[in-house]
Amino acid sequence: MTATPKRPFPPLHPHSTSDAEAIRDNDWAAFRQLEQVADHWTLKHWAPGQAGFYWYLTFADPALVALVTRCQKELDRDGIDPVPLDGLHLTLLGIGKSDLLSSAQLSAITAAARGRLRGIRPFHLEIGPLAGSRSALRFSVAPWDDLLALHSALREATASVCSSAGIAETSRFRPHVGIGYINTPQSATRLIEDVTALRHFAPVSASVAEVRLVQLRREDRRYRWTDRAVVPLGL
Fold first, then answer.
1. C-alpha distance from residue 60 to each of 47, 88, 192 (Å)
2. Which of 113, 172, 192, 201 has the highest CB neighbour count under 10 A?
């Protein structure tokens, strides 16, 4: 899952990683330029039974759950597999396939992360409005500065134990929170129109106080995971 780098989306960074409007405009402009969207499950191919380790942020904030619910209800005709409400997440960093990492390596990665994350304080994010990518619909997330620092620290911690060759560079990180995966190749036109109608919903605030090292798997066109470690920020 980390061996072949995928093109980041949007292709370019916003002109400011601290300006929420710049981030949202960049996400929206990139999505609106798409002519076609792809089946996520084909584009992001996994072998049967495949699983992998990732650093995740997870969310259960009531305001975010309510916003996701409203948007998913309006998109149920669009060939979208909705993200379960108990599965809302922000992917920070892929670590590697499960069969290539030992329990000792995971423990060492976690210990290294604990040391580096003591210097990063808990923070808040604004999540929304809705936009999309080549194979998913997702919320913009702003600002990026704390997330970029978090990604960099986790990358350093992971690379101190594993080879850095397959670990994504922070320059390729594009924070987002997905709400649905496109399951049918199609023209992007209708999806863009339907998302446009939902962009008036105001962003909501979510808190970030910890990161999770998860073992991720696919089940019936959904992502599910098991926590392997939870690392607090600033402690």
1. 30, 7, 27
2. 113
Task: Return d(Cα 17, Cα 207) in angstroms, integer.
Answer: 18
Element of type H or E holding 129: strand 123-132
Cis status of the peptide bond prior to 10, with omega within 30 of 0: yes
Q: 147-174, pLDDT tens digit by residue?
A: 999 999 999 999 999 887 789 999 999 9
Number of Cβ atoms within 10 Å of the Cβ of 56: 19
Q: Which CATH class is domain 27-232?
A: alpha beta
Tokens of 26: 């960049």
What residue spans define the domains of the chain? 27-232
For residue 215, list its beta bridge partners: 53, 226
Q: Is the pTM of this model over 0.70?
A: yes
Question: Tokens for 106?
Answer: 């995971």
